[in-house]
Every structure is written in C-alpha cells, then in structure tokens.
Amino acid sequence: MADRPTGAVQGDNRPKLSLHVPEPKFRPGDAVDFSHLQVPEAGTAMRPDETCDPKDMHELAYGLVRVLGEDNKAHGAWDPKLDPETLRKMLGHMAMTRAFDERMFRGQRQGKTSFYMKCTGEEATSVSASMALAADDMVFPSYRQQGILIQRGYPMIEMINQIYSNKGDKLKGRQLPIMYSSREHSFFTISGNLATQTPQAVGWAMASAIKGDSRIAATWVGEGSTAEGDFHSACTFATVYNAPVILNVINNQWAISSFSGFAGAERTTFAARALGYGLAGLRVDGNDALACYAAEQWAANRARANAGPTLIEFFTYRAEGHSTSDDPTGYRSAQERTEWPLGDPVTRLKDHLIALGEWDEERQEKMDLEAAEHVKKTTKEAEANGILGHGLHHPFRTMFEDVFEELPWHLKEQAEQAIHERETKFPEGLPNGGKGA
Amino acid sequence: MSDTQTKAAPATEQDEERRLNMIEAINDALDVSMAKNPDVVVMGEDVGYFGGVFRCTAGLQDKYGKTRVFDTPISECGIIAVAVGMGAYGLRPVPEIQFADYIYPGLDQLISEAARLRYRSAGEYIAPMTVRSPFGGGIFGGQTHSQSPEAIFTHVSGLKTVIPSTPYDAKGLLISAIEDNDPVIFFEPKRIYNGPFSGYYDKPAQPWKRFDESVVPEGHYSIPLGKARRVTEGDRVTILAYGTMVHVVEEVCKQKGVEADILDLRTLVPLDIEAIEASVERTGRCLIVHEATRTSGFGAELSALVTERCFYHLEAPVERVTGFDTPYPHSLEWAYFPGPIRIGEALDKILAE
Question: Is A191's CB within 8 Å of B82's CB?
Fold first, then answer.
C-alpha cells in the first residue's frame, strides 16, 4: 500500500473507501429478467423541430424513441410515414444483410477466411439509418455496418473478395476481413482501431462546411468505444464548429465480454453524453427500423439546415458473438437474446408490413430464399478469385505499394528482398504458374 | 543532394535583398501555399486571430478568412483526426501542434490513421496533411517544451519527417511538404527561429539577417523532400546533422579547423542515402549529431546504415553525439545539450583513429 506522507496522521477515523467494479446483471446460466429496462410505449416521445435548441430536448436523451408498437403499427410524431415500397426495400436490405452474415460466418468456420463479424439484431441501425441519408453523404462506419454497403448497392462480390483477401480484393489483401472501403459509395475505409473514425467524420463535415458543400457526414461507434478520447474530441469539435455531422452510438450492450457498464451505462445513457457538449441527443429503439430511420432523418435534416450536429444512441442488442473469434457463452446468459424486450428488427419490420396488408409470410420466405441464393451464387463467383491462404493473392510487390505515393529507396530494397525470398522458396517456379506471385 | 549555393527559384535583384528569419519564411510558405491552392487550410491552438504563439501564422486569418485559418480546441487527438477527415474530403490541411512535446495525444491518429490511409484503402483515401510543430531545446523550455521526438515518427511506415535548418530551406521544404500527397511531420527547430545557433549559449545570439541563408525569394519555390544539403565540403570527416545541430557542428568545425563534409539531412524519411554514402566513401569517417535522446534515436538508424553500407570505406568507428537519455532538464539545459565540448571531443576521437 502506498505510504502516507510522513506526519500525516489525520484521517484514521474516516470511513474506508471502496472501489466499484461494474458487474452485468446476468452471467452464463442465469435466468434473465429485463424488467428493469424502461421501455416506453411506441409513439409517446415528442418530436421537436429539427432546429431545436439542444437544451429544449433533454428528455429525448433519457427516453426511447419508438414508432413500432406491440400491434405492429406505426405510432406517434416520429412515424416517418414511408410508403410500402420503401418499407419493403428496407426489409429486403436487412434480410440480405442477415443472409450475408450467415454465409460469411459459415465461410470462416469452413476455413475460407480468418475472421468475420455479424451484425445480427443490429441491421436496422445501419440499413434504416443509411436509407435516411443521401447516397453521397459521407459515412465513417465502425466494423458492424455492412448494412450500409448493402443498402448503398456496393457489389457484394467486392465485399466477399475483401473478406477472402483474394486476388479480386481491391484492398489488395491488406486489411482484416470486413474492413471495407469504397470511396465511390462515400464509405470511409474502416480502421479497426476504435473510435478513431468519430473525430474524422467531424473533420470531413467541417471540410464540407468550409467548402459550402451540401453533403453531411455520419459516423457509427460502439457504446464501449465511446470511452475513447477520440469520442470526446469528436463531440467537442462537432459542437465547437457546429459541424454537419451525425454521431451514431450503437449501444448493443456488449463490447466483446465487457458489458455497457464499463463505458458508464450504469449511471446514465449514452445519448445523455450529448447534453454536456450542447449537442442534440436522441435515444432510439435500435430494433425499430422506423424509429432508426426517423431519428437519422431528423439528424440529417438538422445538419443540412446548419442547425448543428446530433448524437444518437441506438439502444439494441448484439445477438451474436463479437466476432468469429469470440464465444459469448463464456460470459453472458444465453437467455439474454431471447428475453431482449425490444425484439428482432427484421421480424418487427416484417410484421409491420404484414399488419399493413403489404406483405405476407410466403413472400418473406421467398425473399429470404432469394437472398440466400444470391449470397451463395456471389460467394461462388468470389471463390474463383481464391480464398485466404490459397495462393491467389496479390503480387508480392503490392505489399510495398501505397505506403507512400512513390516507392522510396528503402522500400525498393525491401521489395527486392521479398521477391528474392519467394524465388528461393520456389526455385522451380512459382505455384499456380506464377499467378498471383 | 543540393549545395547551399544553389537557388531553386529565379531570383531578381530585389529578391536577393529580402532577408527573413525562419518564422517569417514559414509564414511566407503558408501564405504562398494558401494563395496557390484554395484547399489548403491552417488550424491549431492559437493560430487564428493571434497568429500562433511563435507568430508563424500571423496575418493569415486576416488574409484568408476564419474558415481557412482557425483556432482549435486544445486537443491534439482532435486536431490530427479532423485533419484526416478533411484530407479524405479533399482538403490539404496544415495543422500546427504548438510544441512537439504536445503531439503525443495525436499519435494514434497519426500512426494508425494518417500514415495508414493510403495503404489500407489501396489508394482510395489519402492524408495529404503537413503537421507543423516547433521542436528541440535551447530556449529554457523544460521537459515539456524542448523535446525532439523525430525518431518516433521515422519509425512509422507511411510518414515523412522533414526538419529545416535555415529560413530558405524552411520555406522551400514546407511548400514541398504541403504539396506532397503523403502525411508529413514538419519539425521546426525553435532555437533557430530567429537566428542560427553556434552552440555557444554564452555568446550573443545572431539574427538570421546576417546570414545568406536568410535570403528568401518571394513567391513559390520548393525544395524536394529526400535531398540533403551540403553545408561545408571537406575530406576529413562526414558529419550528419539536421535542425539546430547543423549550425553547432559547423561552428565547432570552424573553431577546430576541421575540414568536414557536413550534410544537413533536411528529410529523415525518405533519407538521402546516396549523398550519405558518397560522402562517407570519400572521407572514411562519419560523425552523427542530434539533439534527441540517444537510445533508439535516429542516429542509431544512421549509424547502422553507414556501417552496413560503407563498412569497407570506414577508417574509424561511426560516432554519435546526442542528447542524454534523460528528460530535458530546465536548469541544466546546457549540460544536456550536445554542445561544442561533446561534439569537439567526438571529432578528436574519430579523427585520431
């Protein structure tokens, strides 16, 4: 124990201090009861004007914007009143995202790649939010927003090539699977370092404002990563420069094995982080596709009107493990997923469309089947470009390219060494007739 | 390599007369760059209305407006991060970090983000930013206003590191850095902002205006990154230095009458290895001088390169003169600084072999 300063004798009769270490409510095997979560009725949250002063909407940072009710109908002022065709598109993108996740997860288990991350249960937070943005609004995602790429029409084969790090991977096999990049789709290169993208999105939005552009930026970050200093920088810069940016916090309750309490959720909401900065803060049912759309649309309107940035907390649940490298049965109760009081986003949107008389189970089944078939077919196409570790990668020299715009002398020397090692290992010529070497 | 005498820009009679200190030269480079390219923006703590604590950005906000020259929150992480985002948009940000000692909160954004964007996105996104920052000691700045952290950055793949030693070079190198499509760390040796430093701290300081290197032409000129400058030509020993130490070694050689081939490296990455090899092969001796701490300093890299590549030309072991492996002390600043005695003794040693 640390010594007290000599001569300091006072304080011996003071109470002993104790350290609080957060502990989740449920561990493996525990019966799960989520009745402590306050889930307001759909349609009860007020919807202020998009130019609202953040101080006049504090209650929205502590409540929960919900549109879809138990009756599967849309309620209240946040109902975005989307036409059935748009709703079916939304459902289609979400179903496709889920089918993609299923296939890629299996592909990893079959040894076709090293790593994958599903977004099961969180599809609405990317698909619906993305639909509320313009296609050329810039997004700075974290690693679980594959729904944005699917919604924006990024070719699925590009996603799979990237996941397989094969010779078709336009990122040249340099990045961990799912760390996509597509400038053409206004989708920033995913880092893998956490929360770094949040202040970058603010910088992009500042640049857009400097140039008098009309495009806004949006970023996604997990609730666990809001603990990073970068998130504080993002909030500070966003508010200081009134940047046209949306900070989406995906509160899926778990950061690998650490529950949201380790990011401060025992004391307050993540949306309430906004209040101290003077940002608009919204807390939204992340499993309610209509609420997700409406909140993102509200924030986009606000940003586009130069009325300021918004922090949105999407309250959701990570239904699967953190990644293929994770086993959630080791730290949380399996019942959490089934007991989650906000349901499943795909099911809820489907049931809504059915309640509207615009959809039915047969069409859903057919759509799911078609999605699975599409993913399967695209996977086969991608496999023709190779899978991870099977030789069909990019040429060796590409390892040294793009470190700088031009290759400096030291990288030229190192590239020669790498090629020499390759030739030493395969003196009879390279495998696959030299293809990919 | 280029020689001191070489002037890249066509200079008129009037230009020859214009003498600037390094602060004015840097200000001039920013002015020229902003006038030439509307995508260049300058930001940092106190750089806007006030013009920077060292005055490097003085007058720029007046000239280019508040959306191109602006103050930032005290957040080096945020400053570098928004510069990454601005670069992704298509701007060419020139953030200032007020002291190099303050750059560490921005390291993740520099190392994991700015330096890696081009690589990880296969060229879809780049970070064409120039991070300016005053560095080095000799101004009684204590441990938090004196450091020379260049080796942290030279160790990172994807970053260029540039350090000028004269007003003329500062302008030309800064313009090159801003026009470069890769992220550049531009360290400004603050001890020589106002005049070169001989290393004799107890002698009167000399203003730049008395030296020809302060002749800074108007308008645009650039000095290519990766090219060293020969400060003095000699056959007895090669001395590799940069920043403040260029002037100190020059003075020590003058005092001792040593005809040294002094190379001002100007850019650490990419390094002008050809100039170094050519010089060491000719002199057979190599002394490396930097102000930064010794262990894993850039001198270690230079020593390794010279030993690996010029070993059979060497007539004496490569010598390093550096700062000590301690924090930069306040009251004992000149005991820490690699001054004339430390350099002189190393020279004696290497020449005696």
Answer: no
Hey, where are the domains in chain A? 54-323+332-383, 396-434
User: What residues of B are in the A interface, CB distance below 8 Å?
Assistant: 41, 67-68, 72-73, 75, 77-78, 81-86, 88-91, 105, 108-109, 112-113, 117-126, 157-158, 160, 180-182, 226, 269-271, 273-274
To the query of whether residue B145 is one of the catalytic residues in this protein, the response is yes
pTM: 0.96
- Cβ B82–A200 below 8 Å, yes or no? yes
Q: Is the N-terminal amide bond of B270 cis, ω within 30° of 0?
A: yes
Rounded Cα distance between B211 and B23, Å, is 15
Amino acid at B219: G
Q: Specify the domain boundaries for CATH 3.40.50.970 within chain B.
A: 13-198+206-212
Pick from A200, A209, A405: which is nearest to B88 by CB?
A200
- Whether this model's ipTM surpasses 0.90 comes out as yes
Q: Which CATH class is domain A54-323+332-383?
A: alpha beta
For residue B277, give how far its alpha carbon lies from the nearest alpha carbon of chain A (Å): 13
| Helices and strands counted in chain B (H then E) | 13, 13
Per-residue pLDDT tens for B271-324?
Answer: 999 999 999 999 999 999 999 999 999 999 999 999 999 999 999 999 999 999
Q: List where CATH 3.40.50.920 sits in chain B.
A: 226-352
A209 contacts in B (CB within 8 Å)?
A: 67
Q: Distance (Å, rounded) from C-alpha B236 to C-alpha A379?
A: 67
Nearest to A402 among B78, B109, B118 (CB): B118
Contact A409, B270 (CB under 8 A): yes
Query: Domain B13-198+206-212 classified CATH 3.40.50.10330?
Result: no
Q: How far is B124 from chain A (nearest CA, A)?
A: 6
User: How close B128 gets to chain A, by Cα (Å)?
Assistant: 10
Is B121 in contact with A191 (Cβ distance < 8 A)?
A: no
Tens-digit pLDDT profile for residues A163-177: 999 999 999 999 999
pLDDT in tens, B145-165: 999 999 999 999 999 999 999
Residue A9 confidence (pLDDT): 64
Architecture of domain B226-352: 3-Layer(aba) Sandwich (3.40)
